[in-house]
Amino acid sequence: MSQTKNINFAVIRLAVLAIVVIVGVSSSFYTVSADAQAVVLRFGKPINTTNPGLHFKLPYGIDEVRIVEVKRQLKQEFGFGTAGGDNPWQYSDPGEQELEKSMVTGDLNAALVEWVVQYRIDDPQQYLFEVRNPDATLRYLTESIMREIVGDRTVDEVITVGRQEIENTASDKLQAATISYAMGLRIDQVQLKNVDPPRRVQSSFNEVNQAQQERESAINRANGEYNKEVPRARGEADRMISAAEGYATKRVNEAEGDVASFEALLTEYTAAPEITRKRLYLETMSEILPKLGKTVIIDEETKGLLPLLNLGGN
């Protein structure tokens, strides 16, 4: 009987040991997905950050692993909310959204501003341990910065021409604040959505905005006509100037050629006046006579002209 008890006790010890080994081995490995990083804690203190892949850790709860999706882009919406998001801090309650987007501009006008912040987790250890609930902190911080920026600008800048500058300024200030507070976040973009005047004056503002757009459209059309006609007129002027310059060059060359020809003829005439005179006469007649058609030349002393004419000929 005693021997049987010893055998049973040994079997139990072996079974317990096997369970302990199996639990230890199964809890000694963990896997990190491709879009995440893992923060390893030893007795509750972070000791390491690991990249995607299979990794080893101490078992039995000595090491604890927290997975953080660092490559996932997160967003927070202000003044409105898009259903279906799994980020609990993506948007506020519908009752608070109207208060979020109601702002006062620098010229003491009211504006309804809706915007989105897109961000990522850049440092998992900071994100998990440096700030309590960094997503909530980011939301409060973003609203404060946006109200400050809008409060420094006129309503026209906020609604029309200053949107891009407001987005860039908000992104820079928000990134600087997250670094200062060691929140472990990287701001990708701040984007303004709907920016409108208060509803009771929105129709009047739309009329003014439409008039401004029509004015800009008319200016653009006028500039288009200007840009089309001015180059055409300049081209026509350049063509006429080129033609005039070409004609002037031609006349100058012809005059210079005539002068050179006359000077050469004068030299010949000075050397042999009679011969030169006769040559000029013959050259002139050779140019004139072919243009006269059929020509009959007779001696001025001829008495009977009729017999000499071939009246039946052509």
Automatic annotation (TrEMBL):
Superkingdom as given in the UniProt entry: Bacteria
Domain Band: 27-209
Protein keywords: Hydrolase, Membrane, Protease, Transmembrane, Transmembrane helix
Subcellular location: Membrane
Primary location recorded for the protein, binned into one broad class: membrane
Membrane topology field: Single-pass membrane protein
PANTHER family listed in its UniProt record: MODULATOR OF FTSH PROTEASE HFLK, STOMATIN-LIKE PROTEIN 2, MITOCHONDRIAL
Entry protein name: Protein HflK
Gene from which the chain derives: hflK
